[in-house]
Model the fold of this input.
Amino acid sequence: MQLKNVIESPCGLRYMLDRLDLQSGFARRWLLDSPMMTREEDIRASYDVLHRFRDFIDREDKTYIDTLQFRLQGLKDIRTTIKNLSQKSTLDDIELFEVKHLAILATDVARLLQEHGMDNVVVIPALDKVISILDPDGMKIATFYIYDSYCAQLKDLRAAMRQHPEQQDDLLLQANELEEGVRRDLSLELHPFATAIEQAQIALAQIDVCLAKAIQMRQMGLTFPAFARDGISRYGAMFHPLVKESLVEHGREFQPVDIAFGQQPTLITGANMGGKTVVLKTLTLCQLLFQFGFGIPAATAEIAVRDEIYFCIGDEQSVEKGLSSFAAEMKNIDAVIQASRKNKKILALIDEPARTTNPTEGAALVSALLRVLASKDMSLVMTTHYDIESGDARCLRVKGFENGSMDYQLVEVQDGEVPHEALNIAQSLGIDREWIDMAREQLEASISRENDKH
Amino acid sequence: MLPFIDEILRYDSLSIVGLEKNTGKTECLKYVLDRLPVQQKRIAVTSIGIDGETVDQVTRTQKPEIVLREGMYFGTSEAHYRQRRLVSELIDVSDESTSLGRVVTAKAVTGGKILLSGPSSASGLKRWMGEMHRKDIDLVIIDGALSRLSSASPAVSQSMILATGAAYSANIPTLVSKTAHVVDLVNLELTSEDKIKMLLPLEKGVWFIDKQGNLNSLDSVTSLSKDIHFEGMENCETLYVAGALVDAFLEKVRKNKNLKQVELVVRDFTKFFVTPQQFRLFLKAGGRMRVLQKSKLIAVTVNPTSPSGYVLDSDTLCGKLSEAIGLPVYDLLKNKD
Done:
């Protein structure tokens, strides 16, 4: 799975990507094409590099970082050219220019990094030989044409062109043939460097991405994660950057949440507007950020590596495709169950399953789902409004509505009994009194009927 | 050297625009390039849009390639760069993509022919020009899009040459009056400096400044409403139209008794979509018309031959047009001999 496959995940990954200060389109494409890491050593290696860049931007002067980023704006996507080169095709002037441009850029960036103790953090292959092939006069500037010094005959022809403009068309024809010969020779001479050039291009993209990630970590207050040893992920003061930003815009504050989950299924209950969905979104976001090597939005994070991540939330896109919301949801959850039968470490985050159907069947579906998934070796976090048997699940509850304001903290409770705060909350929202009062009467009547029965 | 070559060098950018296809725009560009002092000035040339076909795609008449001189810089598409008939050194390959590939910038190492097709949008063109000026280019010349005056917008280039001719109208009085109308718009005077400062950032909507100098937005005025009516109308001193100015609006302003003496400000001449009749009626009624940005119109050139083969008398045409616009008018093909 590549980053581009999950970029539109409703967890808000796109927001993070949109706020990466990337300098080149190529770096963005490279990042979007990067695979989700599922091996601890890969993730560790990627964070080791990011660590170096994080220290680097803290330590170095801003003008120097700006210079480096400005240089990286010159990074172009020349994959087609590199492919032609590796296939021994003859490159044209534009392609040769691209190769020279990249070689000079790579050399400049390598030097800039080396001067600041960042050599070999990301290895940029040396391309001095490539530059010297394409810069026969040693001008050290990133412009290119088939220079006179490549071919004495060409030089004479061009001199003749200047002296006899009336013969230009004839002379050009002859010159073109010579130039083509030079291009063929140059392309063959450059052919052995195709791999090094490709690596240099990727290295520059990686540097662009690492710088952007490091800057984002500082700007958003993200943290480096540790690896969970016991299969239990633990977050301290976790936040969702997008939700936080929109709250701040409205002059409000985001209340960070502490949460741990892992071996046992975890059931989150809580009042409406208690932030249950936000918790699930944030957990999904953090897991994806972790496995793509980004900073994590929390004060502390210990995260377990997963093979597959499932985030099931009322999916409006499927509704647009013509599936009913119930059908879409059932299919999504079914995919989780099928995946859980394979021998993979999966994380499933399921938001209020079966919420769109009647409460009797809905509760039955949810409670059965919990039992089915609990029997599998997987990590599960689920939210619900239904009163269900929680079995072996750990139950967390949003503290909820207290003294007129919402406390978003999660507290561990013994069973999954859901709080009955919907009417209070509706009332605090200033919803029509007649409606709410009538609902309250009806609720009390049904409770007393229940009590009479017993 | 014709006098306008000297004048061109006073500005850092020049657009050459034709009022119609085959009004001699490309000839005019050729003429200018042949005469610029390439040894003393660093000159870059490009074109906006796909404008470099060897054969004009619409009228099927032959379109000349541009002849560049040694040392000139140029911006064209990858496709046309590959067809170049000169030796040139690549300076840059941009990310800007056109239907003919990316825009490349190069410097002519020998003189020779090239088809021009530069950035395809005004914003792309502006970026390219900025890049050129950063590379110490003294003068950027833009081969403007045919019958699209927007490429000569003062927001893009400081000066312009207008090419007109029999292709625009085959009747001398009509040709003169239609061309004079465009020249009148290009030559509209700038409004006062404080107003320019106040209005330039406003890119949308209709605004008015009252006699006390306060700026007000005029949201309620739409082109659908029958006449203009707004609060503070009696006190309105300046009316600013940030977008396109059309006949209907101009007529409503003219017919409004409160706005008789108003100064109507439009962004620049490319935003005018009014007929000469409405324009004249407005001025006659006592209204004043001003702009925020202005290009210097350096010259008007004519091509007396229409693509259908009809030929107007060059001397009569130049004389009548010059009289109408108060500027010298050149027939470049004739003057060449």
